[in-house]
Amino acid sequence: xxxxxxxxxxxxxxxxxxxxxxxxxxxxxxxxxxxxxxxxxxxxxxxxxxxxxxxxxxxxxxxxxxxxxxxxxxxxxxxxxxxxxxxxxxxxxxxxxxxxxxxxxxxxxxxxxxxxxxxxxxxxxxxxxxxxxxxxxxxxxxxxxxxxxxxxxxxxxxxxxxxxxxxxxxxxxxxxxxxxxxxxxxxxxxxxxxxxxxxxxxxxxxxxxxxxxxxxxxxxxxxxxxxxxxxxxxxxxxxxxxxxxxxxxxxxxxxxxxxxxxxxxxxxxxxxxxxxxxxxxxxxxx
Length: 286
Known about the structure:
Blueprint: H1 8-16, H2 36-50, E1 56-57, H3 66-74, E2 79-80, E3 98-104, E4 107-115, H4 123-127, H5 138-160, H6 180-195, H7 203-214, E5 217-223, E6 226-232, E7 238-247, E8 250-255, E9 261-265, E10 268-276, E11 280-285
Helix pairs in contact: 2-3, 5-6
């Protein structure tokens, strides 16, 4: 998430490497203090300064607003990532992306903006000591990194994985990116979720995937020794890597177009394939 006030060297570096970027407004301001015209200006000015059609947004200070969401909705943004999920301590935010509903003065509006919530405690919560003198002490810093790493793993194992949810890592070059040791919290998390064959992606990819699924309908019908999956969707909509959980063990699966991959684990299975209008997958059970 980038602002318009970022230094020129960093801006050129990010653009030259073609990293996926999202917006946090032109300057670091509290959007709750802005009226509608200034809100629109902050959002559009940042897109103009980067010459980029952003599809994602994060409000500074994690404070989304009615005017802000309405502006994002009207200018083609796909997701917002401010309302942090904190389901280890108490229920706040959600580990499943959802469409935001906003209200003001009795007026309610559903939007196509997905809320993709970041993990509640970010790197600053554990590594903010880098702003102080003790941050340079390797033993002190190492302890904080280990605690941060365990927090991320626990959030994955207890708040996200059991519910087939989504976990968003939120880091900053000043903290998680300080050196190889601080970056190990993220690399350890990636190693952990790879063991569970989780999908690791940018938020733009997640939003595109979820929005594609919203337009599809899946149905099944029994066949000898198994069942057949069928799909209806708008023409031209294709979603890669759709994964369906199946109770029981799958012997084999074949798609009308492309490959259908089967993963057996425990007493259940997963079938992964490309979904589009007219696609069918024949499944044979053990």
